[in-house]
Amino acid sequence: MDFFAAQDRARRKTWQLVTLFVLAIVGLIFATNVLVAIAVSFSTTTGLARGVGQTMRDQSAETWWLISFAVLICIAGASLYKYFALRSGGRAVVEMLGARQIDPASQILSERRLLNVVEEMAIASGIRVPAVYRVDEEGINAFAAGFGTDDAVVCVTSGTLDHLNREELQGVIGHEFSHLLNGDSRLNLRLIALLNGILFLGIVGRLLLRGGAHTSGRRNSNAMPLIVLGVGLLVIGYAGTFCGNLIKAAVSRQREFLADAASVQFTRNPHGIANALKKIGGSVSGSHLTNTRANDVSHMFFGQAVTLFMNGLMATHPPLPQRIRAIEPRWDGRFLQGALVSEAADVPEGASGLTGLSGGSSLSAHEAVVDAVGNPSAASLAQAQTMIAGLPARCVDASHDPWSARALICVLLLPDDRTARAALTNVLEPQVVAHLPQIEAVVGALDDLQRLTLVSMSVPALLTMSRPQYDRFVADVVALIRADRRIDLFEWVMHRVLLKGLKSHFEGPPSVAVRHRDLDAVRDQVAQTLSAIARAGGHDDDAQRRAFDAGAAAIELDLQFVASDPNFTRLNEALRDLRALHPLAKPRLIKGCAACALTDGAISSERALLIGIAATLDCPLPPDLAL
Amino acid sequence: MGFGTLVFLGIIVVLVVWVIAIYNKLVTLKNRYVNAFSQIEVQLKRRYDLIPNLIETAKGYLAHERGTLEAVIAARNQAVAGLSAAAKDPGNARAMEQLGSAEGALGGALGRLNVVMEAYPDLKANQNMMQLSEELTSTENRVSFARQAYNDQVTEYNTYKQTFPPVLLAATFGHSVDASLLEFADRAAIQEAPKVKF
After folding, report:
1. Distance CA A106, CA A401 (A)
2. Over residues A596-617, mean pLDDT
3. Hey, which residues of A are catalytic here?
4. Quick one: CA dihedral B179, B184, B185, B189, positive or negative?
């Protein structure tokens, strides 16, 4: 599956959807006009005698414009409201459902297992580790929500925790990650907002109906049109929702097959996801949710979350047997009874045989990097498991606790020099400083990639901070980075990877509109980026220029090398512009960056920078990229 | 169906959206502080799990200080009960106050134990004991951090509830009572807010 093409497809699909919804809205406006005419003709005895058509002709054109306008305002208002309510990203959805964040340091086995699975998958796909939530529901279901990978959250039901084993969980989470990486979850959030506008007409109808029924006790003649209008709006509102659901179902169902396939590719284990689906089929509650709000987000879930009237047509997910057969063509049709999973310690099962599998492709090394963006393989997963297992236990524990995760990040940013270190610790809270020596002892020997992995693993714990704590923490981190009056490579990457993820959660994800369709328009920015990579890799001027030229050649543009950029200010500005590139223009840029980094045969010192640049461009890089 | 009616309907629509927005915001903020309380719960539980080990280790040395040890155990059990009551209804004033005072009593009992231990250098030098007290201190820090986060969320919820439009509706939507901050009695050192530095 091609990450960039998938992103582009999701983007174009948004426009298709908007078109369909506009059509639905035009239909609704027309229906409301007819309805008002009926209501008016009910209100006068003469009107009733003359019929609805005549009443419509009687009223001036202005009235109909006004009514149409009012309906439009209603729909647009309600959609916009929902859009703004959802602007805080994935977090808004889980909070709407009343889900609870699972403690990142949880020692309850079923929770620990899930957290580990999510952690491995996130590291394998190069995105920051998302916060994991649970809702107390018996059904087996899960979803991922977010505009991008930075504000992503993963949510599962208690049923999932109780009934699925590690293999099956991996299948389910792999499916959800595929939605996140393909931009499906962004599309899903927009769908909720649009649908809310149409549903709102129905709510107004219900209110009018209640108001009408209330008045009718006293003055009969006046209430009648209100009641008719109310019933009418209710019908129209539900008709609108019906159309909306049809569209939602049509869009959603196709993507489920894609996500199932991606999950198999990711875990290289068709039985995991197939057995999870079989367990849904075999369990009493299936994948259903009792929460009434689940209906709004039904298209985000792993399995069918709500049963609808005319299920075949409006189901957001394809039928279970069809999904299982797509994965296991020779399935005997028997579901699995959802027995509770046994309590055994959580150990990733032998992924050892898979590490070598990424080699042997006919692609050149830098093309392999492009191919790997947002497209983690089973080898990436194995690599991530090995990497996490290789981290000191004390660091891993520290990264899971909000308090010590802060200390861990500070330690990673402290300079090696003793005196400089002592001066810096004055900046920090005394309690954090007291905790530093413990962590310092184990962090020293870690390489850049391990450090970045720890940063990513710390994110869920750091997300549990309150806003004032977050503000304080960010101020500390920035102070540490700036303290020695220069910003080194690792500090820059750290700032990028860490703060990008936290900012989306606390301040809402940024909206990045596509502004540049072609790399030609952003030549200078591309040159800045390539120069930064070349400077990071080459020791002398000559080597740097050679690396730069290789990158420029891969991009096929004529570019000017930039010899210096203290404090990364120009790189930051350049990346801000490059972020607004069209998804289909990005692979060429990534190819150039990779080619530039690979000139001296290996991505070593440039690796951290490459990860930082890719993260800023929203192109998650798996850790096993062309090692 | 004149212009006036439409304006009237328009106003109703705006009001409805507004009310829904207030309702949702109240629910969200409440969920946030409940979530924040579960962080405190995690850390306090960890603390309560450490204490029996501490007592077990100290027992061998402190044969003549039975009273002090028993006071710690009693205070710990009290605090465990307070926590489980508070976890059922985070933000409830009574539950928060009880947990706060139970925690305060536990802190006091542990403090007295520390004073007693000063007289037993052997115990203080015990490897196990050193590790346990180190972990207790570190948990203390975590608790105070989690408590700060919880209190921030509670304050945000209470403030929102008391601002103008929500104040009219909060009670109707079942948010009549302010959520309670969690304060630990007799713990001035922890309660002290981190100093602002420039």
Report:
1. 9
2. 76
3. 176
4. negative
Q: For residue A154, which amino acid is it?
A: V
- Give the span between the Cα atoms of A563 and A542, in whole angstroms: 11
* Residue with token string 């710990």: B76
- Which of A70, A404, A466 lies at the smallest CB-CB distance from B149? A466
Give which of A482, A470, A463 is closest to A413, Cα–Cα: A482
Q: Residue A419: pLDDT above 80?
A: no
pLDDT of residue B147: 92
Can you tell me the distance from the alpha carbon of B74 to that of B66, in angstroms, rounded to the nearest whole number?
12
Place of tokens 């875990």: A267
The token duo for A470 is 């977050």
pLDDT tens digits, B122-138: 888 888 888 888 888 88
- Closest by alpha carbon to A147, among A453, A513, A468, A471? A513
For a pLDDT cut of 90, what percent of chain B falls above it? Answer: 23
Burial of A546 per CB tally in 10 Å (0-12, 13-18, 19+) = middle
Q: Bridge-partner residues for A145, per DSSP?
A: A153
Pair type for strands A131-135 and A153-157: parallel
Q: Count the Cβ atoms, other than its own, within 10 Å of residue A207.
A: 16
Q: Which residues of B touch A67 (CB under 8 A)?
A: 1, 6
Give A-chain residues touching B13 at CB under 8 angstroms. Answer: 73-74, 77, 204
| Chain A residues in contact with B32 (beta carbon < 8 A) | 95
The pLDDT tens digits of the residues spanning A249-282 come to: 777 777 888 888 888 888 888 888 999 999 888 8
For chains A and B, CB pairs below 8 A equal 93
Whole-angstrom distance, CA of residue A264 vs CA of residue A266? 5
Question: How far apart (Å, rounded) are the C-alpha atoms in residues B1 and A36?
Answer: 8
B1–A105: do the CB atoms touch at under 8 Å?
A: no
**Would you tell me how many other CB atoms lie within 10 Å of the CB of residue A259?**
24
Span A275-286, pLDDT tens digits:
999 988 888 778
Chain A residue numbers with beta carbons less than 8 Å from the beta carbon of B50 are none
Kindly determine whether residue B152 and residue A73, on different chains, have CB atoms separated by under 8 Å: no
Give chain B's largest Cα–Cα span: 92
Of B13, B24, B42, the CB nearest to A77: B13
The angle subtended at Cα A382 by Cα A625 and Cα A404, nearest 5°, is 90
Q: Dihedral sign, CA of A495, A497, A500, A505?
A: negative
Task: Please tell me if residue A72 touches chain B, with a CB cutoff of 8 Å.
Answer: no
Q: Is the ipTM of this complex over 0.85?
A: no
What does the pLDDT read at residue A85? 82
CB atoms within 10 A of CB A376: 32
Q: Does A95 contact B at CB distance below 8 Å?
A: yes
Per-residue pLDDT of B9-46, as tens digits, reads 778 778 878 888 888 889 889 989 998 998 899 889 98
| Helix A489-507 with A606-616: angle, nearest 10 deg | 20
Please give the Cα distance from A480 to A414 (Å, whole number): 7
What b/e sequence results for A581-601 when a residue is b if at least 16 CB atoms lie within 10 Å of its CB, and e otherwise?
A: bbbbbbbbbbbbbbbbbbbbe
Q: What is the pTM of this model?
A: 0.83
**Residue with token string 């530095």:** B197
Q: Is A162 helix (H, G, I), strand (E, B) or coil?
A: helix
* Interface mutation vs chain B, best among A401, A427, A473, most B CBs within 10 Å: A401
Longest dimension (CA), chain A: 96
Residue A551 main-chain phi, psi, to 5 deg: -65, -45
